[in-house]
Amino acid sequence: MAEKAGAVVLVSGGMDSAVCAAIAARDYQPAAMHVSYGQRTEARERRAFTEICDRLGIATRMVIRDESLGKIGGSALTDTSIAVPEVQDVESAIGSKVPVTYVPFRNAHLLAAAVSWAEVLGAKKVLIGAVEQDSSGYPDCRPEFYRAYNEVVRTGTSAADITIETPLIALRKAEIVRRGVELGAPLDLTWSCYSREDVACGVCESCVLRKRAFADAGVRDPVPYAQAVLH
Amino acid sequence: MAEKAGAVVLVSGGMDSAVCAAIAARDYQPAAMHVSYGQRTEARERRAFTEICDRLGIATRMVIRDESLGKIGGSALTDTSIAVPEVQDVESAIGSKVPVTYVPFRNAHLLAAAVSWAEVLGAKKVLIGAVEQDSSGYPDCRPEFYRAYNEVVRTGTSAADITIETPLIALRKAEIVRRGVELGAPLDLTWSCYSREDVACGVCESCVLRKRAFADAGVRDPVPYAQAVLH
């Protein structure tokens, strides 16, 4: 089961992670990890993960359940008593304060699991498709977080030579779409919507940012939407 | 449920965590978190956690299951195909290389969950009873790991003012026993053994370090052992 892998790539099932997985599949023989954490669209994202790995030929996979984030709550994604906001335009999706869809310190959970696995597999890289530009302003998507995390990995592992890579962090979302098309990343299999699992809602932050990205890139978004964004 | 808490304290159920919890109970109104991660003595440690919290009057508690470490394996504590070593003396327990009982990057998992919870509770401190001195040489028990992790917390959280504290990290194990006795920490309720749940084996690294600590402190170890260490 623990085959040789050059990298562990975290794949949520969204468009950024699919492009990141395509980069990993091109550059390394990666193992792919997916984390279910009680988010509203958990089942749909897990399906996207499986289909993306199938398409990219990534055979070594691990799906894990992080029970803590659901129990801790504090986010519209994990606590059904907090509504997922509908946003009217991209400006309100990018807003200057941390939105209620922020899952507290989530990416630290994902990285911890991926680094543990990398250590056991002997993989030297952990890839994550975090994006700072055109994003919702989550603190755990900023470059300084990943720089700091690399120091944690250096000091806290037995291997000490694993590094986190964030190949998309400085890209605009439209550039990520273009990069995905160039790489043949399976954008058609991805799921970005925060609130629905049948068709994408089109009005959550994630849908609004995604739609604008495809529009700016001049690429048709292959995912079906329930309604158009009003802008 | 999410009552006001001044700190989140991680409590494994071992002697160091019980002393750390007693410090937290003295200085803060803490919430206590326990993580089961598929370790051999999971049920016994969870019982110790509950009893320690009861004794210290810590009402706000969370027990979570981290499924990933068991799936990832790579440690004698989580993989039953790797034997827990029996050590002959304290010197071989402290050894210079990372032992097979190291659970890869485990403390990064524990801290991620505790920091997420602190963020939601509005707690400003996360306490963990990590010990560098007299320990088995786990990389994620060293001060530099916690210094680096504090930078991750500063950059990766919305609150940005949570800090990790390691009140025991520089103490010898015998000093921890003495500190525990002074504080009235519930050392009698703790469980340190890596391999057994009925009585402590007395011959794993953890038992050997614990027995020496009590002996050096001149305090009777209240926990029953299966056999004496040969030295």
UniProtKB/TrEMBL annotation, chains A, B:
Keywords: ATP-binding, Ligase, Metal-binding, Nucleotide-binding, Queuosine biosynthesis, Zinc. Zn(2+) binds at residues 193, 201, 204, 207. Its EC number is 6.3.4.20. Pfam families: QueC. Binds 1 zinc ion per subunit. One of its GO terms (biological process) is tRNA queuosine(34) biosynthetic process. SUPFAM superfamilies: Adenine nucleotide alpha hydrolases-like. Its cofactor is Zn(2+). It catalyses: 7-carboxy-7-carbaguanine + NH4(+) + 2 ATP = 7-cyano-7-carbaguanine + 2 AMP + 2 diphosphate + 2 H(+). The keyword Glycoprotein does not apply. GO terms for molecular function: ATP binding; ligase activity, forming carbon-nitrogen bonds; zinc ion binding. Pathway: Purine metabolism; 7-cyano-7-deazaguanine biosynthesis. ATP binds at residues 11-21. The keyword Cytoplasm does not apply. It comes from the Bacteria. PANTHER family: 7-CYANO-7-DEAZAGUANINE SYNTHASE. Belongs to the QueC family. Catalyzes the ATP-dependent conversion of 7-carboxy-7-deazaguanine (CDG) to 7-cyano-7-deazaguanine (preQ(0)). This is 7-cyano-7-deazaguanine synthase. It comes from Candidatus Korobacter versatilis.
